[in-house]
Design goal:
Blueprint: E1 8-12, H1 16-25, H2 30-38, H3 40-45, E2 56-60, H4 64-79
Length: 80
């Protein structure tokens, strides 16, 4: 596979408050949200690892339709 087709895409939330709001909106209970945010995985996934910063495509995941449009454009650019 050509290196051009290998890419890292990191979706970044504007804030933890936005993440909490989305979890509530999808029906998660307060205890589950608290547990999820305190998990090792949540802490790991909250930040782009330093070794990927120069290679990753970072998309702000503030609004679904905008994020989707940016992702579509990114994929189109990669495949062009």
């Amino acid at each position: 596979m050509p290196a051009k087709l290998l890419t890292v895409i990191f979706l970044e939330l504007p804030s933890k408050a936005v993440q909490v709001k989305r979890l509530y909106a999808r029906g998660d209970k307060k205890a589950k949200i608290k547990q999820r945010l305190a998990s090792k995985e949540a802490k790991r996934d909250a930040k782009l690892p330093a070794q990927l910063r120069a290679k990753a495509n970072v998309l702000q995941n503030a609004e679904l339709q905008q994020t989707y449009a940016k992702l579509e454009q990114l994929v189109a650019d990669i495949l062009a």
